[in-house]
Amino acid sequence: MKQLTLFSLTALTVLGLAGCGKDNDKSGNAKLQIRLTDAPGDFRAVRLDVQRIELHLNPENDPDGWQTLPFTPQTINVLEYVNGRSALLVDTDFNPGTPQEIRLVLGPNNFVVGRDGNTYALKTPSGQTSGVKLRLQNVTLTAGQTYQLLLDFDVAKSIVERGNGNGNGNQNERYLLKPVIRVVAQDLNGAIRGTVSPTAAAPQVLAIRSSITVPDTFSTMADASGAYQLWSLPAGTYTVKYFPTTSAPAGQNPYLNATRTDVTVTNNAVKTIENVNLQP
Fold first, then answer.
1. DSSP 97
2. What's the pLDDT score for residue 59?
3. Domains of the chain with CATH codes
4. How many angstroms separate the CA atoms of 240 and 209, rounded?
5. Which residues 6+ apart lie within 8 Å of 134 measured at CB?
6. Contacts (Cβ under 8 Å, ≥6 apart) of 162
7. Least confident stretch, 109-113, 149-153, 241-245
8. Which parts of the sequence belong to the DUF4382 domain (predicted)?
9. In which band, very low, low, confident or very high, does the pLDDT at 148 lie, cut at 50, 70 and 90?
10. Residue 59 backbone phi and psi in degrees, to 5
């Protein structure tokens, strides 16, 4: 992990983007997800005033290459997203292409709550207008696939206490914000497939990754033949749940929900679940 000076950042090593997704998009767009997670720090809260998130598509020296992503400005307590938790910041369709950089534009209301219970402003070395820039390398957004960028914010390294320890007695001058952020691409190349019966139950199928602190959920529907498949899943252990969307004909046993537990998904492999009967 490299030290990043706010608003003038050296290049990060990007691990590439792996396809993931709840369903492949058929519109010719790629899908882009951006998540924020955190390494713990010695504070009660660390709140970042995130105003915009932008992606740069053109060559680096082209100032007109920035595109604003759909994002609701908000103050995020990054300490809520540790130990497997992550905040979903962006989930959008996007034109295929090769982005060069991502930029977070912060507002003025960044602050920390110390172990002493006091609130301290987070000062930045320069203005917020240029944003926190993270360079991307070897990233290609491909039509029909979903890509996930995980921004790993290191609180302990990003918040720097001034040398005198108290900002000359002014609590608004005690801490500086110098973000240290890794851009991580997760391996999202596993898959689950199977069949259900009766096919008329037309169930929704949820695959819930239970091997992380805050489970991820991926969904699809069984088709007219009773088949379903979920592609580009992160490796892990899943619980798969089936919810019929129709009712059984009169005189027949009702369609019932079903669950399969401990479904293991690995990278570059397809996990097949034996037929699930929704009408015992």
1. B
2. 67
3. 19-185 (2.60.40), 190-277 (2.60.40.1120)
4. 9
5. 4, 9, 12, 101, 102, 103, 104, 151, 181, 183
6. 173, 174, 175, 176
7. 149-153
8. 30-179
9. confident
10. -55, 150
Task: Give the pLDDT confidence of 151-204 residue by residue, as tens digits.
Answer: 888 887 888 887 655 545 555 678 888 888 877 655 566 889 999 999 999 999
Pairing of the two strands 181-185 and 146-154 = antiparallel
pTM over 0.70: no
Choose among 180, 132, 125: nearest CA to 155. Answer: 180
DSSP-assigned letters across all residues of 106-172: E-S--EEE-TTS-EEEEE-SS-SSS-EEEE--S--B-TT-EEEEEEEEEHHHHEEE-TTSSSTT-GG
In one-letter notation, the amino acid at residue 8 is S
Over the chain, what is the mean pLDDT? 79
- The bridge status of strand 19-20 relative to strand 111-113 is unpaired
